[in-house]
Specification:
Shape: globular
Number of strands: 10
Radius of gyration: 21 Å
Structural class: alpha+beta
Number of domains: 1
Number of helices: 13
């Protein structure tokens, strides 16, 4: 199916009964649906593991009329049948987060008088295989909007994002203290790339992106030690991710996909960012808090912003984390020292490097140039990666954002000693 055909199939998954249930969950049992329509607002290249669209509805309640809109996440209806089990697992994980974990964590935070997590409300979920559907609050009605993924976050945006992640991490620990069984679900404790036992392992996809990085570094020249390092990382990918889920004192519930496309920002009258909302929890899992920090700071900031401000950014995270833990009644050992945050962050730098290499091309491509996996049948996957590799290599010479953004990661890790000089 091409993109338009696939979109039409996805639209057919959105039923009137689902909209009615979401409306009642949002407005109360007395709300009566009058009419509704689907209104797409995303573009090709914005949707990866789900189709994201919206519904606008008119309703009556207590004799008065009203209008409301919801954001919809639907099964992507792609032709890649080998990933059907992974798609289902991703929806199960996100639905469980919104309908189970999020309310419990918000209750813990409210009891501590620190508000709720910076995330949308969920009004409906349906997990029937191939018909998965999640209906969420439409944050656009509250003034939230997406930051241009091709631009690196500035300090103000990055600090808001770090505060949102810190609150999530701390809330998960406070919940675990009160309900130890709440974070033991298998889906939350599997290594990255192995969502479903016996399903297709997606590590080969990641290996191909590392191969592309090796080719890019070879084309640029002068990064021989980095090439050797990337080859070594590629050979140890499975080991890296298996070790990543082994429990330590720093394990929390991480977002798992914390780059700027999975965040919305609200702005003050002076155009400064005032609030953040974290989206897309389909990759959430229990690992070190430093995974989210590395993911965010290396995929979503340019080197000239990240490097000179790293200490201040990590301290922003630590300050919010400790404040939430203290409000929740955590003892001294539940809080993080400055040295602990930096040491744990550096210990997970390889995670930041891996995921930067994985998505750097997609981040910097023009939206109309992004090729979606869902547009290709299984037999075309190799062709898709060759096309993405070609575009990445072209971008080194044609896109002024690509070379400095890509090389800054390797330059920093050479300087810190992660990559031998």
């Amino acid at each position: 199916m091409n993109y338009c055909e696939r979109t039409r199939v996805c639209h057919s998954l959105i039923t009137e009964e689902a909209v009615k249930e979401a409306l009642r969950a949002d407005k109360g049992s007395g709300a009566q649906l009058v009419s509704w329509k689907i209104k797409d607002f995303t573009r090709k290249g914005d949707n990866y593991v789900a189709l994201v669209t919206s519904v606008e509805a008119e309703y009556t309640l207590g004799g008065a009329g009203g209008q409301v809109s919801y954001v919809i996440k639907a099964n992507p209806c792609h032709d890649a049948k080998s990933y059907e089990n992974v798609t289902h697992a991703i929806f199960l994980k996100e639905a469980d987060f919104y309908t189970n974990l999020l309310p419990h964590m918000n209750s813990v935070l409210q009891a501590a008088n620190v508000g709720v997590l910076d995330m949308p409300l969920c009004y409906y979920s349906r997990m029937e295989r191939k018909k998965e559907l999640i209906i969420l609050e439409d944050l656009r009605t509250r003034g939230f909007k997406m930051f241009d993924r091709r631009k690196g976050l500035d300090i103000a945006h990055a600090k808001l994002a770090l505060k949102g992640l810190a609150k999530l991490h701390a809330a998960s620990l406070l919940l675990q203290e009160r309900k130890p069984e709440s974070l033991k679900a298998k889906l939350l404790n599997r290594p990255w790339g192995n969502l479903v036992e016996g399903s297709t392992n997606v590590l080969p996809i990641l290996e191909r992106t590392l191969d592309t990085s090796i080719i890019i570094l070879s084309k640029i020249g002068g990064y021989e030690s980095s090439i050797v390092w990337v080859k070594n990382v590629k050979a140890k990918l499975q080991e890296i991710f298996e070790n990543d889920v082994k429990s330590t004192k720093y394990h929390v519930l991480c977002h798992g996909d914390a780059w700027n496309n999975n965040m919305l920002f609200r702005y003050s009258d002076d155009a400064s960012p005032a609030e953040v909302m974290l989206l897309d929890l389909q990759a959430c899992r229990r690992v070190s808090f430093a995974n989210d920090l590395n993911f965010l700071l290396y995929t979503s900031l340019t080197g000239d912003v990240r490097k000179p401000n790293l200490d201040a950014l990590l301290e922003t995270y630590r300050g919010r984390f400790n404040a939430v833990m203290e409000a929740g009644g955590a003892e001294g050992e539940g809080r993080l020292s400055e040295a602990e945050v930096l040491q744990e962050f550096r210990s997970k730098n390889v995670i930041g490097a891996i995921f930067t290499m994985m998505i750097i091309c997609v981040i910097l491509l023009e939206p109309q140039d992004v090729e979606e996996l869902s547009d290709h049948k299984d037999k075309d996957i190799d062709e898709l990666f060759m096309e993405l590799r070609k575009k990445a290599l072209d971008m080194i010479d044609t896109n002024p954002l690509m070379r400095p953004r890509f090389l800054a990661v390797f330059d920093e890790f050479i300087e810190t000693g992660l990559i031998p000089a």
